[in-house]
Amino acid sequence: MSVAQLARTLDQELAALVRGASLECLVCGEFVLRLEGGVIACPECRSLLVAGTEVSEVAVPRIASYPQ
Q: In this structure, are residues 12 and 22 in contact, taking their beta carbons and an 8 Å threshold?
């Protein structure tokens, strides 16, 4: 079995994120938050996944940085 057969496509990753099977941000790999209105947001990189074309104002909470 090659690596290409194990790799998931972007469509598969988005579908897994939307249906709740994945909790990982596609941009930075952090955990995502599910906000009101069906918005999926990453508090680390601030990326949003929204159904539709219009995005109402969304407040994405910041996560505290881990101590070094």
A: no
Structure tokens belonging to residue 47:
């990326």
Model pLDDT, residue 12: 87
Six-digit token pair at 49?
Answer: 């996944």
> pLDDT (tens digit, 9 = 90+) per residue, 30-46?
999 888 778 888 888 88
Of 24, 58, 19, nearest to 42 by C-alpha is 24
Contact by Cβ (8 Å): 55, 38? no
Burial track 7-20 (b if 16+ CB lie within 10 A, e otherwise): eeeeeeeeeebeee
Length of the chain: 68
Query: Whole-prediction pTM value?
Result: 0.66
